[in-house]
Design brief:
Strand order of the largest sheet of chain B: 1-4
Radius of gyration of chain B: 17 Å
Largest sheet of chain C: none
Radius of gyration of chain C: 22 Å
Oligomer: heterotrimer
Distance between the termini of chain C: 65 Å
Number of domains of chain C: 1
Order of helices and strands of chain C: HHH
Strand content of chain C: under 5%
Helix content of chain B: over 70%
Number of helices of chain C: 3
Chains: A mainly alpha, B mainly alpha, C mainly alpha
Number of strands of chain B: 4
CATH topology of chain C: Helix Hairpins
Strand content of chain B: 5-15%
Helix content of chain C: 55-70%
CATH class of chain C: Mainly Alpha
Largest interface: A-C, 116 and 100 residues
Distance between the termini of chain B: 18 Å
Number of domains of chain B: 1
Shape of chain B: elongated
Structural class of chain C: mainly alpha
């Protein structure tokens, strides 16, 4: 079942354009059945997983390399799969409303379903290779979705940036996974989870760790690889809500959580992750404070949240992991909801700049309510799920030592600022005086409000029924991440203690920041302007540098001078022959002086004279005749060497060559004379002689080796018995190696077609200027019409 | 090139060469010869005829466009290969039959059909090239 | 015999490469024609050389009698001759047409595809 489930979104993607053509935006209702069905399918696993079971399955994929197509369902992947399919259902519906009437809506559905399939595959993969393939598929589908509005250069840039950054990260991940495979000999995550020590004790652990982090940090937009995420907001809002908050950017976090039992509990893990995560958290919130665009504010807080998750994953306490698990679930719900709210505001009012839009509460009551609920969760207020997450985070961080105090402060600052931004997004567009919007504002249709409403309510319901929720989802997931049974017990009833005080401090900081948001924004803006350079501009510079470099290299290598190409080719050819011979000391021994009959000498001499005459020819006729001479000499040589078939063929070919060469050359004022400067001639002559010498030496050496005649023996023996032919050459051609000949005659025919096409292309300018006066026509007088008729007939 | 002698001799020469090319083609399986060389001889025959009388008489004489003949040859060669399938043997396996017509034993085979295909491909492609180049003369 | 043919083959290669290194298309064309012969001779010589004994089974025998020439390289060379001729014809027509269109026989002047001062590639996205 799960095997087929992996393909369901891709199949739905296949039918999406056709369905959209028939049902317009209402196709969303049909297409949403795919993720909804998958959601129900995964719910079926909940009971087993909550009892600590782990489901795996698969088929051999490349058995010779021990690569399997295998999947793994445990607490971690199940929760992710439910989030992906559950939120995916809402997103498909939301896209139906958001892109209603867009001419490429079908394509959009197709892309988003493909992404869903990739993401689902990523979290369910058990084998490393499958993980990598789906990982890259999410990068590619993300590229397609960010660049959906491909007519705008900003979209194209954002899409390319995301692809380059996450693609490079993907390669790093591949290297890391292969290294892990080499160290442990395992290629399945489910087996690796119980063999962490094997990896941790390896001298290559740090290398594997850094490579895997390269994948996770780029995908999850950790500082300093964060810059692609805000730019990705060029995508339509459903994409931002789905990929860039709820699912894809969490793939990196997923990977870290997945590997926590394997790589965790090491100094590197518990230093690098919190430091980078904390830096991302602070940078993200500060950058978010500066923005006025709803989506950008949310994008930077997403980056901050991802930093928080990474920090918690690497902090090393069980409570911190539980906090990360709870925060991940609540973040997916409130951030997805808030993005859709931002999309609704944008869709209905035509702007998403909080300094330009306000007072929409009456026009959009449901959206406003959803925004408020989501903001409560984001701010970590009871009785919402975000509150549980925050309590657990502080319980996991707050200890006495300096290290913990630092990260506790980081978390308080980050959470406080996110509180402010969450409420800014939820309140500013709706409260205050109603401004005149670019268009008449009213509540969106069901398709648009269902998503945010369900997700916002989810944050409330899951907190109110936290006992069951923890049993089904949080505890199994936390167990999978920590690697041993863990139980999440936190409820909405506040316990008086340190975490509660820290929460209150966060809220106080949040309210203060909300009030002071305008001056903070100005301060941040001037600070960043003063700073100037950032990784975003750095990306432009790198790309421009690559383009310039490749342009320069191309102009240098492909300089348009044919003789340069040919010179390089032949010099390298000479080196390729002579250098290995020299290194291996395989020079041929001096051959004995050949004893030939005088007529054989004569033929060889004629061939040599023909060659010499071609080189020295001063006019066309000499050149053509000399070419014929060397060709006929070769024909005679073939005859002398017992190859009558070759001889006849060579003879005919040389005749025809001379004929067509004469036909063409007498039409052109072309001289075969050498125009090269003497120095150039000497240089070219040296290359040519070196090449000739190299081939002679090579051939002499080859002739010293015994030839394997078994193939020849075979042909000699069976030519008559099996193929009923006495001419062995012909039998080889038409019978033994008939398929070769078949290919070759096809080449002959195609070249004939190409010649015909080339000759029939009408010249751009008059030919008479370049060709010599035409010979008198054989038939006395032919009208132009007759010639045209003939050409038509010929064609 | 278009002397009276040449123009008088050319038709006979060309017909003889065509005849000879067919002879070379058919004897190819047992003695020197075959489709390649036969096709080349036939193409030279038409080239000579074309030089003597111009291109359009040649085109009229062979009725079909030379590239069509070439394509026909490739088709024959493919048929020779595909016939093998009907006997349940791999592509291009040689099949032989010995029908007796008017008391004469004939040896017919798919390799022979294949060789005839080769003949037509070479003949057509090279004739087409030669005629196209000769046609240039009168532009 | 083989030694002599080997040296002759080297001479064929030297001549054809010398011609191809020229900037003038007619000389390049002649070089390509000779290169075909050079390669054919190489293949042929690789299969060892015997004098005057074509690989044909006599009427009364079922397998060849005595020493015969190696038929395998002959079969390879036979098709190679025809193919190199097709290639030569194509190149000839290409030369012919390009001379008509571009009006030069100097490959350095043929700049349709690789212009002399090609602008730098665009830096946008």
């Amino acid at each position: 079942m799960t095997f087929y489930a992996l393909f369901v979104p891709f199949i739905a993607a296949l039918f999406a354009p056709a369905l959209t053509r028939v049902f317009k935006h209402n196709a969303a209702w049909i297409l949403a059945l795919a993720p909804a069905g998958l959601f129900v399918h995964y719910l079926g696993y909940v009971e087993g997983v909550s009892q600590g079971e782990r489901f795996t399955g698969g088929y051999p994929w490349i058995p010779s390399f021990n690569v399997n197509f295998s999947w793994l369902v445990d607490g971690l992947s199940l929760t992710f799969a439910l989030l992906i399919t559950g939120i995916g259902t809402l997103i498909v519906l939301y896209s139906g409303g958001y892109l209603k009437g867009h001419r490429h809506q079908g394509r959009f559905f197709s892309f988003i379903l493909m992404f869903m399939g990739s993401m689902q595959g990523l979290v369910l993969s058990d084998s490393f290779l499958m993980l990598f393939v789906f990982w890259e598929l999410t990068s590619i589908t993300s590229f397609l979705l960010i660049g959906f509005n491909h007519a705008a250069e900003r979209s194209r840039r954002a899409a390319l940036q995301a692809l380059v950054v996450t693609g490079l990260g993907g390669l790093s991940l591949l290297a890391g996974l292969l290294l892990i495979r080499n160290i442990t000999g395992l290629s399945e995550l489910s087996l690796l989870l119980s063999s962490g020590d094997l990896l941790r004790d390896s001298p290559f652990f740090i290398a594997a760790f850094v490579l895997v982090l390269g994948g996770a940090f780029t995908k999850s937009a950790q500082f300093p690889f964060h810059f692609w995420l805000p730019n990705a907001m060029e995508a339509p809002t459903p994409v931002s809500a789905y990929l860039h908050s709820a699912t894809m950017v969490k793939a990196g976090v997923y990977l870290l959580m997945r590997l926590n039992p394997v790589m965790g509990d090491t100094v590197a893990w518990e230093t690098v992750l919190p430091v980078f995560g904390g830096a991302t958290l602070i940078a993200g919130t500060l950058l978010a404070m500066r923005q006025t665009d709803l989506k950008l504010m949310l994008a930077y807080t997403t980056m901050a949240s991802l930093g928080l998750l990474v920090m918690l994953t690497g902090f090393g306490t069980e409570k911190a992991i539980e906090g990360a698990v709870l925060y991940l679930i609540s973040h997916s719900m409130f951030k997805g909801g808030l993005f859709m709210v931002a999309g609704n505001v944008d869709h209905e009012s035509g702007t998403r700049d909080i300094s330009k839009v306000s007072g929409l509460r009456r026009a959009m009551p449901i959206t406003f309510a959803a925004a408020l609920l989501a903001a409560f969760s984001m701010g970590g207020l009871p009785p919402f799920f975000g509150f549980l997450a925050k309590e657990e985070i502080y319980a996991g961080l707050a200890f006495g030592d300096t290290w913990s105090v630092v990260f506790t402060i980081v978390a308080i600052v980050g959470n406080g600022l996110m509180f402010a931004i969450g409420f800014a997004v939820a309140l500013k567009p709706f409260l205050g005086r109603k401004v005149v919007a670019p268009k008449d504002v009213h509540e969106g249709p069901v398709l648009l409000v269902a998503g945010p409403a369900v997700l916002a309510l989810g944050g409330l319901v899951s907190a109110l029924f936290s006992g069951a929720f923890h049993d089904w989802f949080s505890s199994p997931m936390a167990s999978a991440v920590t690697g041993h049974a863990a139980e999440v017990t936190i409820t909405v009833v506040p316990h008086v203690g340190l975490p509660l005080y820290l929460s209150l401090a966060t809220i106080a900081l949040g309210i203060a920041s909300y009030v002071a948001i305008a001056p903070v924004r100005t301060a941040m803006a001037s600070l960043l302007t003063g700073f100037g350079w950032g990784p975003d501009r750095g990306f432009d510079q790198v790309i421009a540098g690559i383009v310039r470099l490749s342009g320069a290299v191309t102009r240098f290598i492909q300089n348009g001078r044919l003789e340069a190409y040919i010179t390089v080719t032949f010099v390298l050819m000479v080196l390729a022959i002579l250098v290995p011979m020299g290194i291996a000391g395989e020079w041929p021994s001096m051959p004995a002086f050949p004893h030939l009959f005088f007529y054989e000498w004569a033929v060889i001499l004629i061939a040599a004279i023909g060659l010499f005459a071609v080189i020295m020819a001063k006019d066309r006729l000499t050149a053509i005749v000399s070419l014929g001479v060397q060709g006929f000499a070769v024909a005679v040589l073939f005859m002398l060497m017992g190859a009558p078939d070759l001889s006849f063929t060579q003879f005919m070919v040389e005749t025809l060559s001379v004929v067509i060469l004469a036909l063409a050359m007498t039409r052109l004022r072309l001289s075969p004379q050498d125009h090269r400067a003497p120095v150039q001639r000497v240089f070219d002559g040296a290359i040519a002689l070196a090449a000739g010498g190299a081939f002679t030496l090579l051939l002499l050496r080859v002739l010293e080796v015994d030839l394997d005649m078994s193939l020849t023996e075979f042909f000699n023996t069976y030519s008559l018995q099996v193929a009923h032919g006495r001419n062995i050459v012909n039998v080889i051609l038409v019978d033994f190696r008939g398929i070769d000949t078949f290919g070759e005659i096809a080449v002959v025919m195609v070249s004939g077609l190409a010649i015909l096409a080339l000759i029939r292309v009408l010249p751009k300018r008059s030919r008479s200027a370049l060709t010599e006066p035409p010979a008198p026509p054989p038939e006395a007088a032919r009208t132009a019409e007759a010639i045209h008729a003939e050409v038509r007939e010929a064609n | 090139m278009r002397t009276l002698i040449f123009r008088t001799v050319a038709p006979y020469l060309a017909s003889l060469m065509i005849l000879f090319s067919i002879f070379v083609l058919l004897r190819g399986h047992n003695e020197p010869g075959g489709g390649f060389i036969g096709g080349l001889i036939a193409a030279s025959a038409l080239a000579i005829y074309g030089i003597a009388f111009g291109v359009s008489p040649v085109r009229r004489a062979i009725r079909f466009h030379p590239m069509a003949l070439s394509g026909f040859g490739l088709f024959l060669a493919a048929i020779a290969g595909i016939l093998s399938f009907f006997s349940g043997v791999p592509f291009l396996t040689g099949l032989w039959i010995y029908p007796s017509i008017f008391g004469v034993d004939l040896a017919l085979s798919t390799p022979m059909l294949f060789d005839i295909g080769v003949y037509f491909v070479v003949f057509g492609a090279i004739t087409s090239t030669a005629l196209a180049l000769e046609e240039r003369e009168r532009d | 015999m083989e030694t002599a043919i080997t040296i002759l083959t080297g001479l064929f290669f030297a001549t054809s490469i010398y011609l191809m290194l020229s900037r003038h298309i007619i000389r390049i064309l002649l070089g390509v024609a000779i290169l075909g012969n050079a390669v054919n001779l190489t293949i042929f010589t690789n299969g060892r050389i015997t004098r005057e004994a074509p690989p044909i089974i006599p009427d009364h025998a079922a397998v060849p009698e005595g020493v015969i020439a190696n038929p395998l390289p002959q079969a390879l060379v036979l098709t190679a001759i025809v193919i190199s001729f097709s290639f030569f014809a194509f190149l000839l027509v290409l030369v012919f047409r390009s001379y008509q269109e571009i009006g030069t026989d100097d490959t350095d002047e043929m700049r349709e595809a690789e212009p002399r001062d090609e602008p730098a590639p665009p830096l946008g996205y």
